[in-house]
Amino acid sequence: MRALVLIKVAWQSILKNTMRTLLTMLGIIIGVGAVIVMVAVGQGAQARIKEQIQNLGTNMIVLTAGASNQGGVNQGAASFNRLTVENVDTLRRESTLLAAISPVIFAPGQVIGGIGNWRTHVNGVSTDYPIIRDWAVSSGSFFDASDLRTLRKVAVIGQTLATNLFPDSDPIGQEIQIRSVPFKIIGVLAAKGQTAGGEDQDDVVLAPYTTVKNRLAGRQFIPQILVSTSRPEDLPAAQAEIKAIMREAHRLASWEADDFTVRNQTDLAETAESTTEVMTMLLAAIASISLLVGGIGIMNIMLVSVTERTREIGIRLSIGAHGSDVMTQFLVESTVMSLMGGAIGILAGFAGARILGHFTGWSTVVSVPTVLGALAFSASVGIFFGFYPARKAASLNPIDALRYE
Amino acid sequence: MSSQPVIHTQHLVKVYAMGANQVRALRGIDLSVAPGEFVAVMGASGSGKSTLMNILGCLDVPTEGSYDLDGERVNGLGRNALADIRNRKIGFVFQGFNLLSRTSAVENVELPLLYDRSGKRLETRRLALAALDRVGLSDRGHHMPNELSGGQQQRVAIARALVTQPALLLADEPTGNLDTRTSVEVLSLFQQLNDQGITIVLVTHERDISAYTKRIVELRDGHVIRDVPVAERRLASDDLQALDAVGEVV
């Protein structure tokens, strides 16, 4: 029998029992819809996290102090700090791939100024810091090389600080005291938002690292060096280069372990992405269960349909239909039913994802592979769960089938 | 037409296993039907006529013996080969009409052509309409079976049986569900078709019906006990006129 005739026959028998067909399809609709919504939520989260990590800075490499290992007792990360300002200079001088480099010296403390006081992070950085973090000032200006050289007491404050200490006035030109040291505000950073970990990046004061090192921190070693390359492709090579330069600067023998740690954004991003990927798959797997239930619904209805239409099958067999003709007819029927359910389910899932996104504020992404996958999956549900009833129909004995009342 | 018989069976035996018992439904049937014959297979229930009808219709296979249909050896063929034989060589007319419900008359008639694997029958719709025309229902093609009377439904079934131009028209109690007048109408149609050269085997238990055929084969306990030509053949067209006359008087 020709394909067109088969589809027509299937379509006719689907139309004969509109209500039953709709209810059967509902199982698939809900299943496919649920999968689409769940995957949309998962992929939305994935996209958001990716965006947040990009937001940390572009092509960034983080160099942190290593772990000390004395007599076999490892003191953990940053327990053995040998990063110095000289290292920063060496890296800047010797590296060929680095586009920007900045030490970060942390000096958390109470900031007094404006309408009150605020405990915040005070970070001593270099003039390259805005490039590395892809972070511009929204008003005023960032400090320059001469500020750095002359240990000028100038500061650039984050949005959180600006709104909390200077809600009604322009902070530029005003003075704040950080641990009793007066700093002049010369700029306000653009809003950056939260990190993927939920930390407020705008709750910060940036000042020349030379000033912070001498007036606030007073330690020889620096906890972190941020570096960026001009192109993301250079990251692995730059990482290797930094390692080599640092090992030489620290005069490490070949058998000694690194006394520093080099990480890049991609590592961070990959970790976060693999986490959300697992979450997406988990959500999809849970939603697939409803698709499975929908498939069983199809099988159930097809079995009823085969019993009900035993006589029809008998007629078809008696006038020359092969078993395979009958089988194909029922398979086409269940597949058409599940495919239609799948198509409606995709629309429902699409709408559901939109509505969910609207009410929860979650970002949802319905991607083309998801839609194609859902269609393919619902078709295979139809074939898989339609197979047993169809085979049952095909193997009927024409005499018995004709006599069936 | 060749003189080759449409049906030729030799010592057909059918044994059913019913649990531990064996039921011998047919105990050696030798039957030959030439082209153009109109045969009534008669017998009480349990005589084996249904079994014979199933085997002649290639719906069932004999336990022993041989069966040639239209010059083709049928016994020993597989399920699909038998389906193809049924499709090409046999037209069935059943007691219960056996039309597909919610499928128009013309689509019902078209159905066997859709299962034709030779791929030769392209204008299925035209052939179906021609077959409907042959049974006098060309104007009812788009009616659903439940919109047709019993007689009309049986005529649609006959059109479906004819549409493949089969070697044999096999009718199983075709008038069993019809009233007297409609029965005579259907038999009149059978006689017309037979006059056009179509070989018909009609299974019935009613002696009245067999009087319209040309030859009676009677079965009992799986044997042919009588095989005689019909002596005084009734013509359905005459009886229809008689019925009309009575109707007018009443």
Structure description:
The complex is a heterodimer of chains A (405) and B (250). Chain A has 13 helices and 13 strands. Chain A is of the alpha+beta class. Chain A has a six-stranded mixed barrel. A two-stranded antiparallel ribbon of chain A has the order 2-3. In chain A, a hairpin with a 2-residue loop joins strand 2 and strand 3. In chain A, helix 2 (18-56) packs antiparallel against helix 9 (265-308). Chain A folds into two domains: 3-52 and 271-403, no CATH class; 81-258, no CATH class. The mean pLDDT of chain A is 84. Chain A has helices at 3-16, 18-56, 85-94, 129-133, 145-149, 159-165, 209-217, 235-249, 265-308, 310-318, 323-360, 368-394, 398-403, and strands spanning 60-65, 69-70, 73-74, 98-106, 109-113, 116-125, 137-140, 154-157, 175-178, 181-189, 204-208, 224-229, 260-264. With 250 residues, chain B is α/β, with parallel strands linked by helices. Chain B has a single domain (35-65, 78-249), classed as P-loop containing nucleotide triphosphate hydrolases (Rossmann fold), CATH 3.40.50. Chain B is 35% helix and 26% strand. Chain B has eight helices and ten strands. In chain B, the strands form two sheets. A six-stranded mixed beta sheet of chain B has the order 6-7-8-3-9-10. Chain B has a four-stranded antiparallel beta sheet with strand order 2-1-4-5, with helices on one face. In chain B, helix 3 packs across helix 4 (124-134). The A-B interface holds A 1-2, 5, 12, 16, 311-312, 314-325, 398-399, 402 and B 54, 57, 59-60, 79-80, 83-84, 86-88, 92, 94, 98-103, 111-112, 114-116, 160.
What key attributes describe this structure?
heterodimer, A: 405 residues, alpha+beta, 6-stranded mixed beta barrel, two-stranded antiparallel ribbon, 13 helices, 18% strand, elongated, B: 250 residues, alpha/beta, Rossmann fold, 6-stranded mixed β-sheet, 4-stranded antiparallel β-sheet, 8 helices, 26% strand, globular
